[in-house]
Specification:
alpha+beta; Chitinase A, domain 3; 3 helices; 4 strands
């Protein structure tokens, strides 16, 4: 079974998500922005969610994590929790 490692930033609005994406594309650090802006407890680890398999996250999240290229920030991805920027850091 495929496993992945990913990190994310969770915010309340698509506009916030897009603004953070622009900052990342401009050279800002993903981890630093996660610590400052994310509404998820994972922000303490720079948004790092650790390793997980298919079905352990909500479907919208899973679809991106198990199909997106490793190392490319994806989003905004809307789930029941809000809007996410996602980066797959490893797929095993």
């Amino acid at each position: 079974m495929a496993m992945a490692k990913a990190r994310h930033i969770l915010v309340n609005t698509e506009a916030e998500c897009l603004a953070l994406l622009a900052e990342i594309q401009g050279g800002a650090g993903f981890s630093e922005l996660a610590m400052e802006h994310s509404g998820c407890p994972s922000k303490a680890q720079g948004g790092d969610l650790g390793q997980f398999g298919p079905g352990q996250m909500v479907p919208e999240f899973d679809r991106v994590v198990f199909s997106a290229p490793v190392g490319e920030v994806q989003g905004p991805v809307q789930t029941q929790f809000g809007f996410h920027l996602l980066e797959v850091t490893e797929r095993i």
